[in-house]
């Protein structure tokens, strides 16, 4: 008997509803095939869980409980969700980029001339410092 037909019939084997000949075939296969034996153990375990009296009966209406669980979950679209800071930063950098694209040339010129002025002042003060140092010596 092949593994797939054993595994296909394993639930019927577990509740002993197969023809006795098939029962024997599967039993023999399970003794020599580790994979199907593991499969069989899984089926038995699932069956045990399924029949566990601790599980809530399926006849109960589960909808209110499920809906209550869904309502307790944080909505991904609430205004104070955790994605908001990122969104704000993305918007801020998009705005900055837009401002830069439209005013970039003027901004850059202003920045360059400002840096140039500072450099000039810096050079002058260094030169003044050097003059005073050489004048003292
Ligand atoms: Zn097998």
From TrEMBL:
InterPro entries according to UniProt: Anti_sigma_zinc_sf, Znf_put
Keyword Secreted applies: no
Protein keywords: Membrane, Transmembrane, Transmembrane helix
Organism name: Paenibacillus rhizovicinus
Transmembrane segments: 86-105
Short name of any one Pfam family annotated for the protein: zf-HC2
Domain of life per record: Bacteria
Family statement: Belongs to the zinc-associated anti-sigma factor (ZAS) superfamily. Anti-sigma-W factor family.
Protein name as catalogued: Anti-sigma-W factor RsiW
Domain spans labelled Putative zinc-finger: 3-37
